[in-house]
């Protein structure tokens, strides 16, 4: 059986780092893992998606439409953009956070005011305020690791040695705050 996790956000939010940490943890636990990442028009500010598939044997790195077990969105509008990738019984974890894209900044589009309500009407949705949680623990840049914690808990991956994964892959001066962020994220779901 293959499990499918789709992480989406905007460039600069740490979506790719979170997916890489997730992939490393899954690989070190013996799963067959495939990861694919897609960057938008610009690395910082463009749409970013990362497909992580794991199980006994994974053939393709890309999640098909309607195939994601969980959609984790670092930004609300990105959750709406990628909702068609979610399985009918899948879960959305959405960060209650807005980043205005260039079409919105230029006035060509309006940011959807009811993004969370739309998500809740279409799928089981867990809403978190990752920015507030990150500020509470003292570093706004760990929002991505908080969201990683929500994936770990939602997908029942707590038995992996995430402490080791973070220690091996995060700068030493940032390990403690990231360990705390991971714990906070796991406690949000």
From TrEMBL:
Keyword annotations from UniProtKB, A to Z: Oxidoreductase
Keyword hit for Hydrolase: no
One Gene Ontology MF term: indolepyruvate ferredoxin oxidoreductase activity
Pfam families assigned: POR
EC numbers on record: 1.2.7.8
PANTHER family assigned: INDOLEPYRUVATE OXIDOREDUCTASE SUBUNIT IORB (PTHR43854:SF1)
Protein name per the record: Indolepyruvate ferredoxin oxidoreductase beta subunit
Domain Pyruvate/ketoisovalerate oxidoreductase catalytic: 11-186
EC class of the enzyme, as a word: oxidoreductase
Domain of life: Bacteria
Keyword Oxidoreductase carried by entry: yes
């Amino acid at each position: 059986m293959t499990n499918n996790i789709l992480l989406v956000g905007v460039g600069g939010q740490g979506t790719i780092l979170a997916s890489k940490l997730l992939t490393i943890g899954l690989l070190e636990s013996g799963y067959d893992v495939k990861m694919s990442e897609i960057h938008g028009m610009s690395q910082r500010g463009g749409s970013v998606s990362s497909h992580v598939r794991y199980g006994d044997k994974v053939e393709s790195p890309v999640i098909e439409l309607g195939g994601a077990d969980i959609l984790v969105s670092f930004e609300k509008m990105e959750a709406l953009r990628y909702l068609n990738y979610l399985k009918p019984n899948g879960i959305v974890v959405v960060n209650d956070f807005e980043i205005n894209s260039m079409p919105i900044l230029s006035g060509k589009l309006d940011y959807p005011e009811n993004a969370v309500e739309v998500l809740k009407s279409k799928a089981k949705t867990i809403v978190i305020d990752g920015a507030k949680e990150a500020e509470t623990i003292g570093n706004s840049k760990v929002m991505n690791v908080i969201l990683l914690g929500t994936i770990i808990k939602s997908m029942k991956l707590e038995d992996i040695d995430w402490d080791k994964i973070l220690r091996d892959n995060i700068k030493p001066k940032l390990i403690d705050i990231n360990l705390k962020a991971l714990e906070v994220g796991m406690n949000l779901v």
